[in-house]
Amino acid sequence: MQGKGIIKVLLILLLLVTAYQALLWFQTNRVENRGVSLCQNSEDPDCYSDYLDSISNKTIWSIPLLKSFTYTDLKAAQMGWGLDLKGGMSAVLQVDLKEYLRKQSGVEEGQDPAFDQALDNAQQRLASVQTDFLSVFGEEWDKVSNGRKLGEVFSYGGVYTDKINLNSQTSEVINVLREDATGVVKQTYNMLLQRIDKLGVVQPNITLDEARDLILVELPGIENPVRARKMLESTAELEFWKTYSINDVYGGFASYDKELKKLDVDTNAVEEEQFIEVDSTIVKKDENGNDVLDSLGNPVTEVIKVKQKTNNLDQRGPLLKLFNPGGGGAIVGSADKKNLEKISEYLSRDEAKRFFPTDVAFKWGMKPSDDDSGNPTQNYLLYAIKTLNSEAPLKGDIVRSASTYTDPQNGQVAVSLDMQGDGPRIWGELTKEAFQKGQAPIAIALDGEVVSAPSVNEPILNGSSRISGGFTVQEADDLSDILEIGALPAKPRIIQEARVGPTLGAENIQTSITALIIGFVLVLLFMVAYYAGGGFVSILALLANIIFIFAALSNMGNVLTLPGIAGIVLTIGMAVDANVIIFERIREELRNDKSLLLAIKDGFQHSYSAIIDANVTTIVTAFVLFYFGLGPIKGFATVLIVGVIMSLITAVLLGRMLIDWWTLDKKKDMSFSMGWSRNLFANLNIDWLSKRKMAYAFSSVVIIAGIISMATRGFDLGVDFAGGYNYTVEFPQNVNVSTDDIKKALVTPFGGAEPTVKTFDGAANRYAITTKYLVNSNEDGVADKVFAKLHEGINSITPVKFEDFQNAESAGTRVTTSNIVGPTIADDIRWSSLKSTVVALILIFLYILIRFRKWQFSLGAVAALFHDVLFTLGIFSLLWGIAPWSLEIDQAFIAAILTVVGYSINDTVVVFDRIREFMNTYSGKSKEEIINMAVSSTVSRTIITSLTTLFVILMLFIFGSGSIKSFAFALIIGVLVGTYSSIFIATPIMADATDELKATEKVKTTSTLARKKVSNP
Question: Under a CB-based contact definition with an 8 Å cutoff, are residues 487 and 235 in contact?
Fold first, then answer.
């Protein structure tokens, strides 16, 4: 074997990487076990996370003279668990360039109708096109501007006066904006990195997709997803405003309410009965219910307070039926949470402006108010703000530092600010003016909501301030962290979000590891039973393969997800393929009476071509998946690429070294078959081509039936493709509930639209609920509204507190996973899936064309791939609703389809490679004879590889759940149909398109007469 030295160096390097990762894991595990031990008896739920946070930047372990590692360094240098294995949250955020463009233009909403329409149209079209916002905006402007130059809009704001003028064309303006927007997206991404670092998540995964202005965030192990979402979506635009009092606007509310009543405006809100307390005289009763009498025998009376309906409710107009004016300081009224949107709509109307000061703006408080006992209510306070020139006198960019502060007198938690630049001067002027106006309040708003509006007791001239708003310590910490990092230049919107509870993550780990171990053992037992001594070599190679895969992924800092484990399980099955190709060729050479050593040499040499071709096509599909995929699918592709490379190294290089060491160095025999398997599949003489018409007929029937089903029944489209909200709700075992019960309970909360409800893989009392309620809404907090409606419906079936319902670890009814996919990302996933499939097919066609130099081979291969894809899709459509497991079409399914494509072409290439070899070896034989001989000589490899692959995929199907079971079923169909199509579709189509097979190169032959036999097992 040539190049043994280089191979040994390569293997030694891999072993060193593996040992290095093992040391890192050992040191990390030691520290984490210490934390578990320290917090074992602690009542503090945050004890363990606080411990890890306290040591995050302390040196834990050192390699002398090389490097010292903190706990953060150790975790960053290892492979992490994805959220579907550890629990946590993932999100895809789209940077909102619509509002950014409005800000940069300086054009207020309503000032330029064409500009407003172009922005709105672009926002709507973005959900159904595969390009960036700026390109779509430019197209929409040209449609609605009636010939106006876009330069007119952006030349007045003062931001781009040096680059844009009145005559600048749309393309010029878009190019300038794109350059600026690219920087904004990157800056938003970098600032989000800092925020996420403050969350204390171990091994977060944050990536930027610049082409689509998307930021992908994975936060495995995050314990408070609601808090994380606020940290991600908040722009942290801090503003300080002068205020009006209730006396300034009370008359406006009353007059405007009368005006609305004249217009007979419908409130579209449920009016609540309102009550007042009045005195009522009653006769006292004793404990037995008898009247209490005084000494003269007269009944004793007492006065109590009772609630009585107000009689003047019908006198109020639409506004005051929903809104209660009054308050103190900057507070001008309050309203129930469910009526905020309608009240805001009333106050924003043009007809409202003549009843209030011209520069007033109404802003709601950030949190609901508390009652007299300090308990939160559903009422929110309304504040009246002086907008001046629509610009806040002071903004958050003046913040130099922020920290949490607890008042020692009353224990109130607040956020302390220190200002920089002109901040101290402007703040001093503001507080001085407010003090002189009778200690008037100054409202402090964050992202358009008032955090607090304290009265100014004295001018503050030193640039320091304090924000109080009924914060918890956690809320104050988060706010100070956000303010210290600074405001985001553009608002990110979550367009896809997934949450997985830690318990479900642990279940996924357990089932995946079980599938991995059982599948691995089955493959090992089969290889030893079939290939004897060669089987033991394959075991060692396979063990090394798995170890090297984990070491490589760890060294790359890869995050292992459930699809990633599926990729490892699949790799175990496919890794055997190279061994099977080699061992079958060695057995073939031995049957030709070659000596053991020569058979081994020729077996390896003649296998390289098929192994390379088969693995290159698999890597091609994996790279396509990696390029077009998002999140877990990209992780699956990474595992597949690493797995294929490691399979080549271990099966071809390590396997050859082990065999040579045993047969050459140790001079011992090695058998490649058992007695029962020695001549299995040997000397086959089957006319495969004659059976192609039957195969064509069978495939046509199945595919046509599938196409009809796809056209009529369609697919069970997952939320990835259809868009919407998907929740897994688990009920306690003692709650008797059905899918119909859940549908009926949710129809009304979800606006009359019936959700899709399915049992979750047959698990008792675990249901998958999917709805499109409010999926097209772009308003803030819409995900929280949908979740609240879900709770409302489920609560009508079995009472459950909201806090317990959203806690995946609670003992009662709870949401264990959730997945939110907006229309933009759903369309993106659909198109990327289609593009990835088409691109993979084109690349494979070109590779086969270059490799085999005949278009007929490419035609046969790609026709078989189309056949396999349509066959699998048809089966999924036909069995949807019949099979007792999920047949949902999601991203994992697309990964399965492309894996099937890679596997199928793998099979086909092996057959084609043997046809090409026989074309040169048996140039005197007919086309039919060559093809039948080639198929017969490779059918053993095809069947054995398919069998070993099915071992592990079946285990994944049996033990997997959710999309993994669907993924595994698609692979099972794909392996079976791929094995069938390589023989009965690809090869016959190539044959039918070819006149004759002629030799393309001369084959060197070597006499075997002088070769000494070492063994002939």
Answer: yes
As a whole number of angstroms, the distance between CA 812 and CA 532 comes to: 54
Q: Which range among 28-37, 119-128, 522-531 has the greatest average pLDDT?
A: 522-531
Predicted model pTM:
0.63
- C-alpha 506/C-alpha 882 separation (Å) is 30
CA-CA distance, 622 to 901, in Å (whole number)?
A: 10
C-alpha to C-alpha distance for 13 and 8, rounded to whole angstroms? 9
Read off the tokens for 988: 């016959």
How far from 692 is each of 305, 652, 695, 701, 939, CA to CA, in Å? 93, 35, 5, 14, 16
- The owner of tokens 């459509």 is 877
The predicted-structure confidence for 694-751, as pLDDT tens digits, reads as follows 999 999 999 999 999 988 888 877 766 767 888 888 888 888 888 888 888 898 888 8
Residue with the two structure tokens 């270059």: 850
**Burial (CB count <10 Å: 0-12, 13-18, 19+), residue 593:** exposed
3-state secondary structure of 69: strand
- Strand segments (E) across 453-600: 464-468, 492-500, 559-560
* pLDDT tens for each residue of 668-690: 888 988 888 887 777 778 888 88
- Count the residues in the chain: 1017
Query: Under DSSP, is residue 774 helix (H, G, I), strand (E, B) or coil?
Result: coil
What percent of the chain shows pLDDT beyond 70? 80
- Collapsing DSSP to helix, strand or coil, 876 comes out as helix
Q: What is the DSSP letter of 829?
A: H
H helical segments located in 595-748: 596-628, 632-647, 655-660, 692-712, 719-722, 739-747
Per-residue pLDDT, averaged over 841-859, amounts to 82
Task: Give the C-alpha separation, 648 to 577, whole Å.
Answer: 10
Alpha helix segments (H runs only) across 200-286: 225-233, 246-262
- The dihedral built from the CA positions of residue 713, 719, 720 and 724, taken in this order, carries a sign that is positive
- How far is residue 236's CA from residue 223's CA, in Å, rounded to a whole number? 22
Of 682, 589, 608, 688, the closest CA to residue 652 belongs to 608
Alpha carbons 685 and 745: distance in angstroms, whole number: 65
| Angle (CA) 867 871 875, round 5° | 175
Q: What is the DSSP string of 303-347?
A: EEEEEEE-S-GGGS-TTTTTEEE--STTEEEEEEGGGHHHHHHHH
Rounded to an integer, what distance in angstroms lies between the CA atom of residue 753 and that of residue 551? 49
Cβ(1017)–Cβ(674) below 8 Å:
no
CA pair distance 917, 911, nearest whole angstrom: 10
Q: Are 339 and 354 in contact (CB under 8 A)?
A: no
List CB contacts of 168: < 8 A, sequence separation 6 or more. Answer: 149, 150, 151, 154, 155, 176
- The residue assigned the tokens 């081509």 is 689
Reported as type and span, the H/E element at residue 114 is: helix 113-125
Q: Which two structure tokens, joined as six digits, stand for 327?
A: 């308050």
CA atoms within 13 A on the CB side of 910: 33
Tens of pLDDT, residues 137-175? 888 898 888 888 888 887 765 567 677 788 888 888 888
DSSP line for 993-1012: T-S-----S-------TTPP
Which amino acid, 2? Answer: Q
Q: Is 857 exposed, middle or buried (0-12, 13-18, 19+ CB in 10 A)?
A: buried
